[in-house]
């Protein structure tokens, strides 16, 4: 009996030992599997390259059908400073150097990509568009790591009709008094009145001070009938998706067979100002007036507000000419950044049809940060 008990104890001990051994082996193998798995995961993470902004914009560029042959390159002027100021238009036009293909390409490219060539901008201008109401605009822009912008729009009588502010995270628009927004059926009559009055310097001086002193919050609360809208803006995503910045300027008009018409590729308006981009980012005028190099000439280089400008004259025809009621034009384009500092357009009768004149244009000088609005609590 005692032998049987000893045998049973021995067998039981042996079984317990086996169980412990197997369990230990399972745990050990499990730990090995976990370590291998963790190592594999780490190796996979290391193997996956990080996606940069450059990668994203390149992918969007290719997805829109553009190749290496369509890539934009830097364009250099081929005129010397010694002939920058030319007084005789006939002499300029007989000069192959100033009216070279390269120089025209430079101007066209600058106008289509002007936001690449300044960090800050403060400006005021007066504009009579081809259709609609004339207006004054005063605005300021800060680009870079902490982008901000602001514009105030006034009618020809100096009455504030709209404002837009961008604080880097939000864009806020306030559009006049809803009860007083009216559309005049006789646009041409209103335009003739504007052409006769042209500019009012006292209005321009006052609205520059308004830009500094009036905030979006004050404008919003001034009248309960103001139309107000505030939207979040992801400026970094806008930059990543701005694939058109990579496209050669001459390739930004592409014929689409499926649409049976040309497609115009516009860059994103990163400063977020809906009206003032007419001046600082004149893509529409560049496409409309300058895309056919045979129809315009560089007449001379002159100064506007101490800024060197190309003085350009030319003709337009076709649908665009009919749309803006303009056949001949003269424009002053900032030599450095490609902004539009002045424009005169004339219809088939030689009457003024479109006008833009500038009274303030300050590039890359410090801006008092208090000018810009904080829209977080608006």
Description:
The structure is a single chain. With 378 residues, the protein is of the alpha+beta class. It is 34% helix and 26% strand. The chain contains 11 helices and 13 strands. It has helices spanning 2-47, 53-63, 89-93, 101-112, 187-197, 201-213, 216-222, 235-240, 277-280, 283-290, 318-324, and strands at 120-128, 135-142, 148-154, 160-166, 170-177, 226-232, 253-256, 261-264, 296-304, 307-315, 328-334, 340-346, 352-363. The strands form 2 sheets. The protein has an 11-stranded antiparallel sheet with strand order 6-5-4-3-2-1-13-12-11-10-9, with helices on both faces. A two-stranded antiparallel ribbon has the order 7-8. A hairpin with a 5-residue loop joins strand 3 (148-154) and strand 4 (160-166). The termini are far apart. Residues 1-46 and 81-94 have low confidence and may be disordered.
Order of helices and strands: HHHHEEEEEHHHEHEEHHEEHEEE
Please state the overall shape, judged from the principal axes of the Cα atoms.
globular
Strand tally = 13
Terminus-to-terminus distance:
94 Å
As a percent range, the share of strand residues is 25-35%
What class do helices, strands and sheet pairing give? alpha+beta
Q: What's the overall average pLDDT, rounded?
A: 82
Q: How much helical structure, as a percent, in the residues? A: 25-40%
Main sheet: strands, sense, barrel: 11 strands, antiparallel
C-alpha Rg, in Å?
32 Å
Q: Helix count, per DSSP?
A: 11
Which runs of at least 5 residues are low in confidence (pLDDT < 50)? 1-46, 81-94
Q: What is the strand arrangement across the widest sheet? A: 6-5-4-3-2-1-13-12-11-10-9
């Amino acid at each position: 009996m005692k032998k049987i008990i000893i045998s049973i104890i021995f067998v039981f001990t042996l079984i317990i030992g086996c169980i412990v051994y197997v369990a230990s082996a399972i745990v050990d193998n499990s730990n090995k599997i976990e370590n291998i798995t963790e190592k594999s995961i780490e190796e996979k993470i290391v193997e996956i390259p990080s996606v940069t902004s450059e990668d994203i914009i390149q992918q969007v560029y290719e997805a829109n059908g553009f190749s290496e042959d369509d890539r934009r390159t830097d364009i250099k002027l081929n005129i010397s400073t010694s002939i920058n100021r030319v007084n005789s238009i006939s002499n300029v036009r007989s000069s192959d150097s100033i009216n070279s293909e390269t120089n025209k390409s430079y101007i066209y490219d600058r106008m289509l990509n002007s936001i690449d060539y300044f960090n800050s901008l403060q400006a005021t201008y007066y504009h009579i568009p081809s259709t609609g109401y004339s207006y004054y605009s005063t605005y300021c822009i800060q680009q870079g790591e902490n982008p901000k912008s602001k514009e105030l729009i006034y009618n020809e009588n100096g009455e504030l009709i709209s404002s837009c502010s961008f604080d880097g995270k939000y864009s806020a628009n306030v559009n006049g008094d809803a009860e007083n927004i009216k559309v005049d059926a006789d646009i041409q009559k209103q335009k003739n009145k504007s052409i006769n009055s042209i500019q009012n310097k006292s209005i321009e001086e006052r609205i520059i001070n308004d830009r500094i002193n009036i905030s979006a919050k004050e404008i919003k609360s001034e009248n309960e009938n103001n139309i107000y809208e505030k939207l979040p803006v992801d400026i970094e995503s806008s930059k990543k998706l701005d694939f058109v910045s990579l496209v050669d300027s001459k390739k930004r008009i592409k014929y689409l067979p499926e649409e049976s018409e040309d497609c115009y590729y516009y860059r994103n308006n990163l400063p977020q100002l809906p009206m003032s981009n007419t001046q600082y980012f004149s893509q529409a005028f560049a496409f409309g007036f300058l895309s056919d190099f045979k129809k315009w000439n560089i007449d001379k280089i002159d100064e506007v507000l101490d800024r060197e400008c190309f003085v350009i004259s030319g003709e337009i025809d076709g649908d665009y000419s009919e749309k803006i009621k303009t056949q001949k034009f003269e424009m002053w384009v900032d030599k450095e950044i490609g902004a539009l500092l002045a424009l005169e357009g004339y219809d088939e009768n030689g009457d003024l049809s479109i006008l833009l004149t500038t009274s303030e244009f300050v590039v890359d000088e410090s801006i008092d940060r208090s000018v810009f609005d904080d829209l977080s609590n608006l």
